[in-house]
Design goal:
Number of domains: 1
Oligomer: single chain
Radius of gyration: 20 Å
Structural class: mainly alpha
Helix content: over 70%
Distance between the termini: 49 Å
Number of strands: 0
């Protein structure tokens, strides 16, 4: 178990989260202009890759890498992963796809019932040549960089107040950083899973593999099903409730989410019990976690920053912004 003294402080975690939020705001404004410029010299997917690299590397990965370089790799749980963990990561990634599909569809139906118009927009991969680039952009980049920030810096810093609290806080901030109302439940639940894996396996690489595999599976499924639907002329439009087939489809989605969630919990429990038996894992006890004025101001600034993006997303969901 890594000593708490060797982990990032709360001020560093809050400042890193603020930097990521500021980078996201900058990306939101600059991406259309950057894309228009880059498309003169390269393809659409290559331009998207350059833009994402300019966000993920300096705004998410760099602060964590600099800290690990100064304090040692184990300060962010950058410890080797076991071969068995690699296997279970791939299994969990596949299960998470089914779990996320059920939860996301049910959440979309709820948003629609409240008057929202979810876009359901995803990455448009038009050819096999773009597929590997899409996996890198949507799978590898966020899988590595988001884990360095959220489960490396943020979770490690907030663990001074207890492991369970740290997992929940890092999961909440992870979900907020995506600035997507549509993806909020799935992103929070995935954050909990990734945080649990980090503290159980004591290896950030395990979460990176799960995160990357999960995102990559989504890209592959989207590419495969999208192409099949286009060929067959089966591309569906309408509300999510209509697409899933009404009340029967809602029940099926609920059953899918419950079964996949149960399998996921069982696997996580098995990983935890095996590690506890071999290494005697114990969560960091819950303790007071006071924050001074500077730490609070930085955290509030970060939350206001992502709230600005959430405001835009809510307006888009309501049809006010196109």
């Amino acid at each position: 178990m890594i000593s708490l003294e060797n982990r990032p402080g709360i001020l560093r975690a809050n400042a890193s989260f603020l930097l990521a939020g500021a980078g996201l705001v900058a990306l939101n404004f600059a991406a259309p202009y950057a894309a228009a410029f880059l498309l003169r010299y390269m393809g659409r997917m290559q331009a998207l890759c350059v833009i994402n690299l300019c966000f993920y590397l300096p705004f998410l990965a760099l602060p964590a890498v600099l800290f690990a370089g100064r304090h040692g790799a184990d300060s962010l749980r950058l410890n080797p992963a076991r071969l068995s963990d690699v296997f279970w990561c791939l299994v969990m990634a596949a299960v998470c796809v089914f779990f996320a599909n059920g939860v996301s569809a049910l959440w979309t139906i709820l948003l629609e019932s409240l008057g929202g118009t979810p876009s359901g927009a995803g990455l448009d991969v038009q050819s096999r040549d773009d597929l590997l680039m899409a996996i890198f952009v949507m799978g590898v980049l966020p899988g590595v960089c988001e884990e360095l920030l959220m489960r490396g810096v943020v979770l490690g810093a907030y663990e001074c107040g207890g492991t369970r609290r740290a997992v929940l806080i890092s999961a909440a901030l992870f979900a907020l950083l995506h600035a997507s109302v549509e993806g909020l439940p799935v992103q929070f639940l995935m954050g909990v899973v990734l945080g649990f894996l980090a503290v159980t396996t004591q290896s950030l690489y395990v979460g990176m593999m799960l995160h990357t595999a999960y995102n990559s599976f989504l890209v592959l499924i989207s590419f495969t099903l999208g192409g099949a639907a286009d060929v067959a002329g089966l591309t569906e439009t309408g509300s999510m409730l209509e697409i899933v087939g009404g009340a029967t489809g809602v029940i099926a989605l609920g059953v899918e989410a419950l079964i996949a969630g149960g399998i996921l919990v069982a696997i996580l429990r098995g990983v935890y019990l095996r590690r506890a038996r071999e290494e005697g894992l114990e969560p960091v006890p819950k303790s007071p976690m006071p924050m001074d004025g500077v730490q609070i101001v930085v955290l509030i600034s970060a939350l206001v920053t992502v709230a600005f993006l959430y405001g835009q997303d809510v307006l888009s969901l309501m049809g006010v912004l196109q």
